[in-house]
Design goal:
- It contains five helices and no strands.
- It is mainly alpha-helical.
- The protein has one domain: Four Helix Bundle (Hemerythrin (Met), subunit A) (Up-down Bundle), CATH 1.20.120.
- Helix 1 runs antiparallel to helix 3, helix 2 runs antiparallel to helix 5 and helix 3 runs antiparallel to helix 4.
- The protein is elongated, with a radius of gyration of 20 Å.
- The N and C termini lie far apart (about 50 Å).
């Protein structure tokens, strides 16, 4: 095999790996984020009223649509990173800019999640909010290695 062909194959494999790792990192972050466990906690532990439950369902539907849009944007940013890696074959300015785009999309996902958490909190009564706040604090400060 010619050296140029070998370099192209290596670059494509590295680009695919970078996209895969970005997707895995985003998925793990999302799974460990506060909102996933909070939904179960809110639904099963806070004894919501019928009105609160209906409001929560609306919030969840809205967030699901926003989250899907943000995940699509993250996949696009990972695709741009893969393309930049194939083009530059090193950590150059295009790769660095693409990484910044991936981080930006991940930040957008985190911001949307935090906004959703506050929206969920807003439908709760004061006692439910205190329990919710404790749960949020525990979720955000828990060391998964423990």
């Amino acid at each position: 095999m010619k050296p140029a062909n070998y370099q192209i194959i290596i670059a494509i494999l590295l680009a695919g790996l970078a996209g895969f790792l970005g997707a895995v990192a985003a998925d793990r972050w999302r799974q460990q984020s506060a909102s996933g466990g909070l939904h179960d906690f809110v639904h099963h532990e806070l004894q919501l009223s019928t009105a609160q439950d209906a409001s929560l369902e609306e919030l969840e539907e809205s967030f699901a649509a926003e989250n899907a849009r943000l995940e699509l944007a993250l996949r696009g940013a990972n695709g741009q990173l893969a393309q930049a890696m194939v083009q530059e074959h090193e950590y150059g300015p295009e790769v660095a800019a693409a990484i910044d785009q991936v981080h930006g999309r991940m930040g957008d996902m985190q911001k949307a999640t935090v906004q959703h958490v506050f929206a969920m909190r807003g439908i709760l009564n004061p006692e439910q909010q205190r329990e919710f706040d404790r749960q949020v604090s525990a979720a955000l400060t828990h060391d998964p290695r423990e």
